[in-house]
Structure formats: C-alpha cells, structure tokens
Amino acid sequence: MEPRVNAQFMKELNEIRILNLIRSTGPISRIEIANRTKISKVAVSEIVSRLDRAGFILEIGKGCSTDRGGKKPTLIKINPQNGYVIGVEIRRQIARVALANLEAEIIASGSVTFPPSTGREQTTRLIFWEIDQLLAQNRISPGKLVSICLGVPGFIDYRKGEIMFADTLQGWGQSPLVSLFQKRYNVPVLIENDVNASALGEHLLGAGQGINDLVCLWIGEGVGAGIIVGGNLIRGRNGSAGEIGYLEIGHSLRERGALQELDRGQRYIGDILSEQNLFAALRRKLSALPVPPENLESLSLIQILTDLPKTCQPAVDEILTEYALLIATLCLELIKTLNPDLLILTGKVPEQVPQLLSKVRTVVQKHMSGIPVEATPIAIGKLKGEGCLKGTLAMALQVVFEPLFNGRNVRHLRI
Questions:
Q1: Is 255 exposed, middle or buried (0-12, 13-18, 19+ CB in 10 A)?
Q2: By the 8 A CB rule, do 152 and 90 touch?
Q3: Is the Cα torsion angle 300, 350, 219, 332 positive or negative in sign?
Q4: In terms of Cα–Cα distance, which of 190, 100, 86, 192 is closest to 132?
Q5: Residue ranges of the alpha helices (H) in 98-228?
Q6: pLDDT of 330-366, one tens digit each?
Q7: Which of 50-64, 158-172, 213-227, 362-376 has the highest mean pLDDT?
Q8: pLDDT per residue over 139-180, tens digit each?
Q9: In the chain, which end has fewer C-beta atoms inside a 10 angstrom radius, N or C?
C-alpha cells in the first residue's frame, strides 16, 4: 500500500505545484509549465486537463511561436471565479469580513459592531449574517466557497480550533469557534492569532514582500509580535510565540528615570506601551501645561499626537521619546535573539505618527553601535489597518495553493 499512497501524494503535490505556477506566472503554456517544473509533458497535460475540468483554469488564447516556428501554444491562467475565500478579523467591538477570489482580489467587505460585553454566541451570529450578506449580494453560491480563516486576538489552541485566552474577548475561551463556522458553511476553517495574520499579510502583500525572515511588531491595545522564518509563521510549542507583551519591564529603565511620564508601576511591557496608557500620559502632561490645549477631553489619541499647536509639541515630544525608547528596547531584544532581515512596526500610532519611527531607529542605532552585529532595518507596515484581514485571506487561500496546511491538502480542490 505504501507505494500507492506515495504516488497519490506526488500526484497531488504536482497538481499544487502546477496550480501555483499558473497563478504566479500565468498566462503560461503547457510546454512552459513542463520546462519550469521538470514534470513530463504527458503528466503536465493530464494535470492541466483535470484542472480545466474542475474549472480552476481558463484558456485565454494563443502565445507566440518559438524561434523555430511551429504551432502557437495555448495560454492558460487561473480562473479567479472558480472559488472564493472569506477572511474574518474579530476584535473587542468590531468584526470585519472580506470576500476574495482565487487571485486574492477582494470582491467585497463589510463589518459588524457590537458592545464589548457581547457574548461569543451573539457575535458569531452577527458574523454569519455579514458573510451571508456578502455572498448573496455578489451572487456567489455557498458551493463556491473554498475556505474561511478567522483572525482573533489571544492564545489559540490550533488543534481544537479554539481561543484559549483573549484579554479583549472575555468569555470566548474554550469555545468551539472553528467547528461553529465549519458546521455553518461546510468548508475548511482556519484560525490564527491576529498579529500572526498581520505578519503574514505584510510578508505576502506589504512591507515584507520578498523577505523570508522578519518580525512584525504590533502595538495597540497591547503588544505582540508575528515571527516569520524561512517564509513560515513560527507559533511555538503552545502557539504563544511572539507574546512579547508579557515581557517584564526591566529595572534599568526605571532606575535611570527614563520613564517619567509613562511609568505607573506596570509590570508588563504590553501594559506600559498600550494605547490607553499613552493616551492617559499625554492627557496628564498636557493638562498640566500653563495653557492646556482647548477641548483636550474631546481629542483622539492621533489628534493629540499630530494636530496640536506648536506650543504643545515639547510636551508631546517628551512622552513620544519615552514611548520610542520602550519600542526600541523591544526591537533590540528581537534583533539580538532572532536577527531578522526586517522589523515591521504596525498599529495605529506607529503607522500614523511618522516621527516615532525616526526616534526608534535612533535609539536602536545608538545601542547597537558597540555590538558586532549589524542593526536590522526597521520599517512601518504598508497594509495599515488591513494587515490582519488580508493575512486571513492569504491563509484561507493556502487551503487551495499549499500541499499541506494544518493537516489539510489538495483533496479539498475536489479535482
């Protein structure tokens, strides 16, 4: 039996190789596929015929003859309308949903909002409603849905498809989230930590394109890192790799008095770097000015950081310098331990406050000057608030375009 099993696996692997090649380089001819993959012309013809019958490819016309003349080859490409994937990003008060075709083009998107106290069951029903609306409005039958990927905060049990713990989704722990979506839509459903999904999105579609070793550092309600090595997400033994928000704040920072404004006795770096703590520190500092800014209580965090008059800038800059020191400290630890090719900063504040990046880079360069290791480049994410959602779509497409993913393989293509 073993040779037969291996032969079946190789058949499926070759189908995926060819499908990926058509996707990445099409339009392409059968002869060019054979030349690039080193698969026999007969085998390529058989596989392409199966893909054609299953609707995954389209013939779009003739190519050019070779220099020696002869029959013009038929060109083929992926049929993007042969299947669709859903990406879902779930946060404390909002869930965002996107529908994409097989070429990762977003066809439609929507969102549902809910109070923080809304339970998992009611929130799930709202998400189901939004998915159903997107499919109906775009006249896509449920049979065309290939897979779904959920991007969620917190610690995940990948084997069970559950959130183990999420500080921002109270009451969601140990609930069968993946099985609920599988039962509803009868397709493979993946689940991923939201920061990991953002890292994959930046790797495939954003600032990290073409870079296989990177760390995506997210700063928002807390702090997290998505780690990609060799093009693959690193989840760790229990799926908690990158949970750097739980690193404890070093005594040296406090002893040097480097955190006069942000330090309120927090234990973890995720707490001191949270947007809430930054917001509170800015309000305290600005309220103590001889002439506080008008309507301070009504201003958003980003407005305080970017829109205040020049008289307020020294106070804002002082706190932003502390904030940059903390981010740079994390960057230094990541550089020394992982030595990635690129560090990407994501989150509302890094992405919308340009001067923060230059401050972080300055601190990192200063502290790396005495170490015989070159400092890793640091960049801002390009996907902005779309990183997690686009990452979930990319992961959902792996059900189609990867030979093995979380124990699933090409048999889902129904070829």
A1: exposed
A2: yes
A3: negative
A4: 86
A5: 120-137, 177-185, 194-205
A6: 999 999 999 999 999 999 999 999 999 999 999 999 9
A7: 213-227
A8: 999 889 999 999 998 888 888 888 888 777 777 877 788 999
A9: N
Altogether, the residues listed in the chain come to a count of 415
Provide the whole-model pTM.
Answer: 0.83
The token pair at 335 is 């550089």
Q: From CA 246, how far away is CA 224, in angstroms rounded?
A: 9
DSSP string, 137-154: HTT--GGGEEEEEEEESS
What would the CATH number be for the domain defined by 82-202+387-413? 3.30.420.40
Closest to 235 (Cα-Cα) out of 243, 174, 179: 243
Domain-wise residue ranges, the chain: 2-78, 82-202+387-413, 209-382
* Residue 84 exposure: Cα atoms within 13 Å on the Cβ side: 23
CATH topology of domain 209-382: Nucleotidyltransferase; domain 5 (3.30.420)
How is domain 2-78 classified at the CATH fold level? Arc Repressor Mutant, subunit A (1.10.10)
Cis status of the peptide bond prior to 27, with omega within 30 of 0: yes
| Dihedral (Cα; 234, 235, 241, 245), 10-degree rounding | 100
The token pair at 1 is 């039996």
Secondary structure string (H, E, C) spanning 221-235: CCEEEEEEECCEECC
Q: Which residue, 106, 194, 94, 196, is CA-closest to 150?
A: 194
Cβ atoms of 54 and 414 within 8 Å: the answer is yes
Tokens of 366: 């200063």
Same fold: 82-202+387-413 with 209-382: yes
Buried b (16+ CB within 10 A) or exposed e, 104-132: beebeeeebeeeeebebeebbebbbebbe
As a whole number of angstroms, the distance between CA 97 and CA 110 comes to: 5
| Unique residue bearing structure tokens 């048999």 | 411
Distance CA 344, CA 180 (A): 34
C-alpha distances out from residue 55 to 80, 357, 408, 412, Å: 10, 47, 21, 14
Q: Is 239 helix (H, G, I), strand (E, B) or coil?
A: coil
